[in-house]
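Two folds, back to back.
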Amino acid sequence: MEFKPSEKLKLVYWLYSLWFIIPMTLVILGIAFYTMSVAVSYEGTTIYSIAIVPLAILLTILAVVLVVLAVWIPRFYRSITFKLEKDHAYARFGVWWVKEKRVPYNLISEVRLRQGPLQRRFGLCNVDLFTPATGTMRPELTYFQLKFDEGVKIMKEVRKRVGILSAKERRVVEEEILNELKKIRNLLEEYVRK
């Protein structure tokens, strides 16, 4: 079973980048307004302060960051491959440094569904797979930025493959075991009577 994250991953990553873009833009605007306010007039020509050089440098940095993000975000999305294989959970992603992880189902001890504030807003989630080797602090493998409905479906599928039962499923299995034990008891009592 192969699947990919939601297309909304691109939007979410652009929103994450605003933590850098907005402050940088505000600094650039501040320097620009400061430069305009301290302009000196000399022989009929307006001369702007030395702040033009830092302004040009900051504008160049911002432009480079925007171009890199415009190239990297779509490439990163295309690089992502998630799979639920016969015996393993698999994830591969990365543009410059490619990460590939394959976790056997028999090592998975816990499966969690996780959502951050932006993910809740856009109907996305992460499915984290934990193993005893990593403890409960950090997941061994994460299927990230999935549509919420698909994330729930994948979480249930992984739990089924791992053998982690919900309370309702556990109760059904326990009732089946109890019925079988009762049948065995009846057979043994019949055997003893004969």
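---
second:
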Amino acid sequence: MKLSFTARLAAVTAVAAGALVSAPGPAQASAIHPDGFPFPSACSSQNSADVRYNAGTEIGSGTAICIADSEYTLAYELVDQSDGNLVIYNEVGQAIWASNTDIHANTLGVMEFDGNFEVVRTTGPEVWSSNTSGHGGAYVCFQRDGNLVVYAPGGNCSGTALWASGT
């Protein structure tokens, strides 16, 4: 059984405020990490809908975007880690996709104007790419099903997928 999005948000808020929060029951224990957060990193933002990044948008180093599934429970986290790796985690903290760019440097996830989604060093060139250039107006979505997808222009996190994480 998963905790609801509202229950998890309340627990995270309480922990962040320093409040004492009682431990979840046995059926819920696997969905919450010992520090009170459902994911390896504290959420920078929590969303109950697909998250769309248009051309020119950056996902900064240390950013952790959490998203709820169709049952409105926090289920996936997209993190641009301080080691340079862009990673998607599931609700129990398991990495289910990674850019494999743990280069010990700060990176950014960038949706380029040419349609390419990239992980770039803050002081240098790209270190990973979706290889979708040539599709100006394309955008990337972190979806409620945990999939990270680059879409051709048009639609709103739907339509023709140019690349997907397969999660």
